[in-house]
Specification:
Rossmann fold, Arc Repressor Mutant, subunit A, 5-stranded parallel beta sheet, 5 strands, elongated
Length: 215
């Protein structure tokens, strides 16, 4: 019986971003000793790279750094931070952070687990931070979005209804009849969706709705 070969897993490229040179050197050294990681340079980062941003606080410079990384196509960002509160946690989430780890809790194992989760497209938060973030998200939906008929997808409830019918193959007349709108209203709704979200056409709007889990 011949054993099947174990598939080779390429190391996860990690770019360490820290203003403190001692922190950067220490974490870089730790990652180079660990299995399954490679330290990537700041230039020409591959799309699959994980950016590890090390900071004391989530200040404007840290948020700008994360936004810049997102602008370069990096979608996996782990924030290793000393202090974070409800306000800065939400700001970090808006800036595109994938995982958050407190420096006081950053053992070698925890740090490696956070990086691997980010590389797999998964998020990671300490349990208390996760609960606080969920409470803030719920409060935002209840107090800000819902009174305005909005959702986190950027679509109103009636826009969602129209897009769902588009996905079912309904034309403008059939959508208007189904939702008791005028055809002009349906056309205006579709135009508002495609213009506001910078979608090319109705098909692109349907693809957006599928991606956002509306269909």
């Amino acid at each position: 019986m011949v054993a099947e070969p174990i598939p080779f897993k390429a190391p996860i490229p990690v770019a360490v971003r820290a203003t403190d040179p001692l922190s950067r050197a220490g974490i870089t050294s730790q990652l180079r000793r660990a299995q399954g990681f490679s330290v990537a340079g700041s230039d020409d980062l591959p799309d699959e790279a994980v950016a590890l941003v090390v900071a004391e606080d989530v200040d404007s410079d840290v948020l700008a750094e994360m936004r810049a990384l997102r602008g370069r196509g990096i979608r996996r960002i782990v924030l290793l931070v000393s202090r974070v509160d409800d306000r800065t946690l939400l700001a970090a989430a808006e800036a595109g952070v994938t995982g958050v780890l407190r420096r006081s809790e950053a053992t070698a194992g925890n740090l490696a687990a956070a990086i691997r989760s980010a590389a797999a497209g998964e998020g990671s938060l300490p349990p208390d931070l996760l609960g606080r973030l969920l409470r803030q998200v719920g409060q935002l939906q209840r107090q800000v979005l819902s009174p305005r008929g909005l959702t986190f997808t950027g679509l109103t409830e009636r826009e969602v209804a129209v897009v769902r019918l588009l996905a079912d193959g309904y034309d403008t007349t059939e959508i208007a009849r189904s939702l008791f709108y005028s055809e002009r209203t349906v056309k205006n709704i579709i135009h508002d969706i495609t213009s506001r979200l910078e979608l090319r056409n109705r098909t692109h709007a349907v693809a957006y709705a599928i991606r956002e889990g509306l269909i």
